[in-house]
Write a structure and sequence with these properties.
By secondary structure, the protein is mostly helical. The chain has 5 helices and no strands. The protein has a domain at 12-111.
């Protein structure tokens, strides 16, 4: 049916970008909440593994935030989306390297000291919420997930 599909492919792409942005904003909001909770809990409980999980989540949030920036660039200047994609990849790589470095030193010190890991009910609740919320979300590479609209994720593809 012609009425169901935009006639102009650029209009369809703009719609896909809008839908993808909505999903990325949800990801950023949840990631900030769960990452901050994990980092705070890890620091207060002196639990290195929880701190590491939180830092990893916050590094992922950096990736999601760069997607927001990349899509904004594509909306304003579609011809610059490849450059934005490259810069976004560099920012994510730096964030992941920083999170890794930030956990490597205390981990090595904890191993050298022979410390034992701790547990926290709040941490288990945060992990369960993450599992429940993030597991059903398809990734950009999994655009054919049954029952999920693939269009927003196709906007993420080059």
């Amino acid at each position: 049916m012609p009425g169901n599909h935009p006639a102009d492919p650029s209009q369809a792409r703009a719609g896909h970008i809008t839908a993808a942005l909505r999903l990325v904003w949800i990801s950023v909001a949840f990631g900030l909440l769960s990452g901050t909770l994990s980092v705070t809990t890890g620091l207060r409980a002196h639990t290195l593994s929880v701190l590491a999980i939180g830092l990893g989540v916050l590094a992922d949030v950096t990736g999601s935030a760069t997607l927001i920036w990349r899509f904004a660039v594509e909306r304003r200047q579609p011809d610059r989306s490849r450059v934005a994609e490259t810069r976004a990849a560099i920012v994510v790589a730096i964030a992941l390297a920083a999170a890794s470095a930030g956990i490597l030193v205390p981990s090595a010190a904890a191993l050298a000291a022979g410390s034992r890991p701790g547990t926290s009910n709040l941490t288990l609740i945060a992990a369960a919420l993450s599992l429940a919320v993030l597991t059903p979300w398809p990734t950009p590479n999994d655009v054919s997930a049954p029952g999920w609209p693939a269009a927003p994720f196709k906007a993420m593809a080059p």
